[in-house]
Amino acid sequence: MMPNLEQYQAAVGKCPVCGRIPTWFNHVPLTAYCWGTEANEHAECRRIVPSPLQPYCEASAKTRWVRAKA
């Protein structure tokens, strides 16, 4: 059975910049993205969904949020 959105969100946690729970997941390996809110945008932050929820490959169980360089 495939995990649902809430399970992916729990696995990656909140964005370290704005504290929002990510709603955008994309790419291979599956990655969570956050850009803040429309009223309070920030540079892209992303985190690879950790194993065992990662559907595409083995990923560390200890992935971390990464902030894109401006």
Write up what this structure looks like:
The protein has 70 residues and is an alpha+beta fold. The chain has one domain. Helices cover 11% and strands 27% of the residues. The chain has one helix and four strands, in the order αββββ. The protein has one helix at 5-12; strands at residues 24-26, 31-36, 41-48, 66-67. Strands 1-2-3-4 form a four-stranded antiparallel β-sheet, covered by helices on one side. A hairpin with a 4-residue loop joins β1 (24-26) and β2 (31-36). The longest helix is centred in the first third of the chain and has 8 residues, at 5-12.
Strand order of the largest sheet: 1-2-3-4
Percentage of residues in strands: 25-35%
Rounded radius of gyration (Å): 12 Å
Number of domains: 1
How helical, in percent, are the residues? Answer: 10-25%
Poorly predicted ranges: none
Biggest sheet statistics: 4 strands, antiparallel
Q: State the distance separating the first and last CA atoms.
A: 38 Å
Outline: globular
Write down the overall mean pLDDT.
92
Number of helices: 1
Counted beta strands: 4
The assigned structural class equals alpha+beta
Helix/strand order:
HEEEE
